[in-house]
Amino acid sequence: MAQDYSANVLQSTNEASTRYHLDAKQKTQMLIIEARRERNLAEIEFLKDTDYTLYLKKRKAVRENTVGSINRMLNKEQRAILDQEKIAYRIETSDLIKQYQSEGKSKSEISLLLLERG
Fold it and tell me: What are the E-state strand segments in 1-118?
């Protein structure tokens, strides 16, 4: 079954397995989630050259949906790890906003830079 997945999907699944201490059933679920993420990103790739802002918004939606799917399959202890990662992401985002503001960037520039971040 693993041979049906790309190297990126397998690597992402292995990293998540290590990070969250996934059991066998969860690893299978993670393979499906990561394969879906990869497929969804491939489906919007054409927008990168035609409508970059829309591409970034859709990429952000893929990331958020992936995190939501991961969250639903984790148990309480594993979810605590994901929650810490979400907190760190929000703090990094806040720090970036402050940095961009101190550099004199406009709100629209900041929004674009945050979308590029993912």
Answer: none
Query: With contact defined as beta carbons under 8 Å apart, do 44 and 59 qualify?
Result: yes
Q: Among 2, 23, 118, which residue's Cα sits nearest to residue 75?
A: 23
Helix 76-102 and helix 107-117, axial crossing angle in degrees, nearest 10: 140
CA nearest to 20, candidates 63, 87, 69, 70 = 70
Q: Would you give the distance in Å from CA 38 to the centre of its chain?
A: 11
- For residue 72, CA distances in Å to 26, 30, 67, 68, 106 come to 11, 11, 9, 6, 37
Please state, in angstroms and rounded to a whole number, the distance separating the CA atoms of residues 40 and 56. Answer: 13
Distance CA 68, CA 114 (A): 20
Contact 86, 67 (CB under 8 A): yes
Looking at every residue in the chain, the average pLDDT score rounds to: 94
Owner of token pair 């919007």: 44
Whole-structure pTM value: 0.85
pLDDT, residue 115, reads 87
